[in-house]
Amino acid sequence: MKITLAKLLYFLSKLRRDLEAEIEKRGTFAITVAASDTPQKLKDRADYICDGVDDQEEIISALSESDCVVLLPGTFYITSSIDISNKTLMGSGKSTILKIPDGYDTSFSILKSTDHGYVTNIYFNGNKRNVAAVPFYGITLTGKRNLISNCWFTEFTQYAVYINGGSYNIVDSINVNYRSDEGVDIRNAKWNVVANSVFTADSAYNGPGDGVHLYSSNYNVIIGNVCRYNYMYGIFLDQASNNAIVGNVIISPQYAGIGSSYGANYNIVQGNYIESSGDYAGIYLCGGNNLIEGNTCKNTIPDGIRINGNYNVVSNNICRGYSGYGIKVLGGTGNLIEGNDLYSTTGSGSISDGGTDTCFGAGNRMMDGTWKVIP
């Protein structure tokens, strides 16, 4: 089934409204938990006080008494997962820190949820430089209708947020300085949203991953995010189809701003801004029947847009400052290349066509500024 952008955006807005309504029904009664270093005035009013060792125990006890738990400012040292299924866990902003302690060597996810979990205003620290080289995750979602918003993540040996087989989840307004594998990893999942978030790699640690990575996942919306200095791709579609990648800003990725494997089909890549991409192109898709429309690719190495597949539509994009070609078709048949602005003072040429039966429609603006129907 081919999905449309209008349907995906309608789904996004409706899902957010539905999840917020579900959370509101839980009521306002909350239990408060203090960390060992929470200011004394706040500790005096807390329902639970942690001692700095296995602090998940007090948090889990609080969650057993109430659907809503508030963590006060301070650092909570976590050594096993906290299940927030059907619960709300709220922090007090960046001053509420969930941290894996020095020297810990057993893999786990700080938070996990199957269905209907809500977490907000918490800083997650995976403490990568001081723990064992085993997988640590910030939050793992395996079910449906979870909401993560306004959280911060740093130094995880694996993913900051891991959606594994889940659906109808929203990750909104998170900030990941990950120094690790990937910001958000979505696997075998559909109908999820990643929106309004910032994914910044730390070049000093050369984390190998992407800002957002989708594997075998369909009908997801990746919208309005910023990906910076990613060691591989800003956003990567690995055998993922019918997704919408819309309105993202991607700066200085190592490979490409937006990329895909073969078998990534019917995706919508629209209205993204990509600058200073590295080894491949601003956008590099290898699947078929994808729409690449209205994107801007600036100062890309070597190509602005590169495709290798059948029946893709590349239209109304702007490519500037490329060192290779504005648009490069490596292979495939029946691709449509139309209405693109490829004006540039650098580059080897405007369009390189290695496909068959490529159609150029009404033409494109070439690198010299002229309009040509046949490049």
Features:
single chain, 375 residues, mainly beta, Pectate Lyase C-like, 14-stranded parallel β-sheet, 12-stranded parallel β-sheet, 3 helices, 39 strands, 9% helix, 39% strand
Explain what you see.
This protein starts with a helix and ends with a strand. The longest helix is centred in the first third of the chain and has 20 residues. The chain has three helices and 39 strands. It is mainly β. 9% of the residues lie in helices and 39% in strands.
Number of spatially distinct domains:
1
SS content category: mainly beta
Helix residue percentage: under 10%
CATH level-two architecture: 3 Solenoid
- Overall pLDDT: 93
Classify the beta-strand content into a percent band: 35-45%
Distance between the termini: 34 Å
Low-confidence stretches: none
CATH class: Mainly Beta
> What profile does the largest beta sheet have?
14 strands, parallel
Question: The CATH topology is what?
Answer: Pectate Lyase C-like
CATH superfamily: Single-stranded right-handed beta-helix, Pectin lyase-like
Number of helices: 3
